[in-house]
Amino acid sequence: MDVPELNKKFKAVKKMGEEMQAIIGDLSKVFEKESREEEKRKRKSSRSEESSDFDSSSDSSGATSLTGT
User: Fold this and answer.
1) Distance between CA 8 and CA 45 in Å, rounded?
2) Exposure pattern of 1-24 as b/e (b: 16+ CB <10 Å)?
3) What's the sign of the alpha-carbon dihedral 11, 14, 19, 22?
4) From start to end residue, where is composition biased (Basic and acidic residues) (predicted)?
């Protein structure tokens, strides 16, 4: 291989490397966004579990008072 041919291949490989780094950057942004959304969902579900626990205790007390009357 001569120098111009090697130079051409080097530039092609360098360009592919830059494109791959751009793709990796985009993917990392997507994963960061998904992990933040998942964390928000976990927080919301833990809050809803707390409120459902409260509702169930109030329902059971309400059911007790209804059966008592």
Assistant:
1) 55
2) eeeeeeeeeeeeeeeeeeeeeeee
3) negative
4) 29-50
**Dist. CA 49–CA 55, nearest whole Å:** 10
- Whether residue 59 is predicted with pLDDT greater than 70 in this model: the reply is no
Instruction: Report how far residue 9's alpha carbon sits from residue 40's, in angstroms, rounded to the nearest whole number.
Output: 47
Q: For residue 40, give the nearest of 28, 29, 48 by alpha carbon.
A: 48
Q: What is the CA radius of gyration of the chain?
A: 30
Q: What is the pTM of this model?
A: 0.49
Q: What CA–CA distance (Å, rounded) separates 52 from 59?
A: 10
pLDDT exceeds cutoff 60 at 2: yes
